[in-house]
Amino acid sequence: MTFSFRPLVLTAMAFGLAASAVAQDAPPAPGPNPEENQPAPPVEAPAPAPAETPPAAPAAADGTPAAEVPAVPAMTPAQYMGNPEYMLNLDLSTGGRVVIQLYPNVAPNHVERIKQLARAGFYDGIKFHRVIDGFMAQTGDPTATGQGGSQLPDLKAEFNVIPHLRGTLSMARAENEDSANSQFFIMLQPRFSLDRRYTAFGRVVSGMQYVDAIHKGEPPEVMSRMVQVSVAADNKPVPPASMLTETVPAPVAAPEVTVDELNAPIKQ
């Protein structure tokens, strides 16, 4: 009997190919330690920092959440620049009106204080009691001593980025940062050492020549004064020219020298 091996060889080859395909589809067998055969994990980028959330409102005594006070948005320049409600008029005894642009966006409480006192007539007639040439002119004290103020409580400081340039309006204070009340000063020349130490809240936009004419001294021999201070929105007219003048004391006449005094012997 004669046997042919070719069919058997072909059959064996077919079984071998099928086994190889099955082996490729099957996952590899785990080793003794499963972690040894695991691929290295990808390096993660740092997780983004969580967004800061506002603290929860404190609960009331009965356990109900307290009402949250909405934040007051800062005013934009379009809301206050050139707006008469935020313009201050100083009619000075040096001859005319000084117009000041107020900055409620950086010092809202100081702006509100100056407007409140102006509308109450507090500043009318108050003198410039301390005026340093090349530095500043200070006023706002009804006693003209540098020690007085209004009956209103002192203000908390609102230091800001407004620089102390020529014409800047800033609030005077004592050593305590939160002691500003009614006294303020106008810069005659820049002094950046005052920045962020005194609350600047406005700047002269016209009439600076009348500020320059304020009598100098600590105190001045003749004190210039604010005849009238008003908020521009109130449309108060400039006082008559006769009121915007200063009473300068007449110079003391030198005593007359007689002929007898000229001929008198010199006393030893």
Tell me what the structure shows:
With 268 residues, the chain is an alpha+beta fold. It is 17% helix and 15% strand. It is built from five helices and eight strands. Strands 3-4-6-5-7-2-1-8 form an eight-stranded antiparallel β-sheet. It starts with 5 loop residues before the first helix and ends in a 5-residue tail after the last helix. About 21% of the residues have low confidence.
How are the strands of the largest sheet arranged? 3-4-6-5-7-2-1-8
User: How many whole angstroms does the radius of gyration measure?
Assistant: 42 Å
The SSE order reads HHEEHEEEEEHEH
Provide the β-strand percentage band.
5-15%
Number of extended strands:
8
The overall pLDDT average reads 80
Uncertain runs with pLDDT below 50, 5 residues or more?
A: 17-72
Note the overall shape.
Answer: elongated
The assigned structural class equals alpha+beta
**What proportion of the residues is helical, as a percent range?**
10-25%
Number of helices: 5
Major β-sheet annotation: 8 strands, antiparallel
SSE layout and pairing:
Elements: H1 6-25, H2 77-80, E1 87-92, E2 97-102, H3 108-119, E3 130-132, E4 136-139, E5 168-171, E6 184-187, E7 200-206, H4 208-212, E8 226-231, H5 259-263
Antiparallel strand pairs: 1-2, 1-8, 2-7, 3-4, 4-6, 5-6, 5-7
Summarize this structure briefly.
The chain is α+β, with helices and mostly antiparallel strands. 17% of the residues lie in helices and 15% in strands.
